[in-house]
Amino acid sequence: MSASPSPSAGGDSKQSDQIHFRFCRECSNLLYPKEDRINNRLMFTCRTCHVGEPATSYCVYQNKLNTQVGDTAGVTQDVGSDPTVSLPGFCLLCGDVVTCFVCGSGSETAWPDEAYKTCLELESHEL
User: Fold this and answer.
1) What is the fold, at CATH topology level, of the domain defined by 16-54?
2) Domain boundaries, the chain
3) Where is the DNA-directed RNA polymerase II subunit RPB9-like zinc ribbon domain (predicted)?
């Protein structure tokens, strides 16, 4: 069994430790790591056309455990304009179920903006 290269060997160990996806030059599929037992070396081989190339880095998997929160965690400024986020099924003022004034059905087919505006108008008239 050959000795693995030490992390301090070479000037840029961060560059050699990064994992890059490699693609087949023949069919453009992903190349997967495979051991060449005859030559005792790591190869990247295509699973469909079996084209292979020698590995430039011996790192095939990385598990980075970070204690810092990611850059995008907690970013919610765009949620208000996101059309996929549903509106609440009840009025934020009175707590009643929002109903559609066109068909009279519940919040699944309702237009919450219109019902909410109407509820606001009713609340302002009652005061």
Assistant:
1) N-terminal domain of TfIIb (2.20.25)
2) 16-54, 86-126
3) 22-75
